[in-house]
Amino acid sequence: MRATARVCQSHAESWGSRVPEHQTTEQPRRRQARGERRIAQLLEAAAQVFCTTGYTAASTNAIAREAGVSPGTLYQFFPNKEAIAIELGDRLMQTMRTTYGEALAPVDPATPLEEAVGAAVDRFIDFNCAHPAFFALMHGPDIPGRIGEEHDALHATLLTRIEALLSSFLPSAPPAELTRTAHMCLGLYKAGLELVLAHEGAEREAYVQELKNALVRYLAPLAGDRTGPDSGSRD
């Protein structure tokens, strides 16, 4: 009798400890997927709060409220506001790197200046309009140190890419002139971007065109005959 009981007990323990393989892999995967969805939800809420109030005035309570969760739920994923901003900034900068890689790709030597400028500006404007939190985080008065460092590195890489693009339009320009021109182009773009993001609809489109016009008119005397027949149009 005891032997039979031991066999039954051993059999039960064997089944109890033998979790089907598909469950051991699927359950962590489901938990991970739920966690990723929650993180995405919190980051989306943080982006909205940072755009509305700025980074300094934002709080974890406001982010949790925007996400529709309790502060306790937020703290399961992020210890503080800075951690949220850093994660959001990392993801946005990765997207930004992809954007400028496409926007500042080498152009055909025969491409008119206004066409190259227009294509690059459109790419960057599309990114910033789709992700306004990027501007709010990167140009705020009190951004976390790590974000500032990564933005400085991104800024330096961006300038290098602009110089490379400009070199096809200004083949005889010395390196110092190319660097100075790249800084001016980026400065003009950033100033125009602030105006673009402050408007919507047709007025936003008008400011986008003004930004393109300003860049083309600045570069045209340097590029010589690389401008097309409609250079500087105000349509």
Which structural traits does this protein have?
2 domains; Tetracycline Repressor, domain 2; 0% strand; mainly alpha; elongated; 235 residues; Arc Repressor Mutant, subunit A
Please give a structural write-up.
Residues 19-34 have a biased composition (Basic and acidic residues). By secondary structure, the chain is mainly alpha-helical. It has two domains: 21-79, Orthogonal Bundle (Arc Repressor Mutant, subunit A), CATH 1.10.10.60; 81-226, Tetracycline Repressor, domain 2. Helix content is 76%, strand content 0%. The chain is built from ten helices and no strands. It has helices at 2-17, 21-53, 60-67, 71-75, 81-103, 113-130, 132-138, 145-167, 175-197, 201-223. Helix 2 (21-53) crosses helix 7 (132-138), helix 5 packs antiparallel against helix 6 and helix 6 packs across helix 9 (175-197). The relative contact order is 0.09. Residues 1-17 and 226-235 have low confidence and may be disordered.
Strand content: under 5%
Query: What is the helix content?
Result: over 70%
Which fold does the CATH topology of the largest domain refer to? Tetracycline Repressor, domain 2
Order of helices and strands: HHHHHHHHHH
Number of individual domains:
2
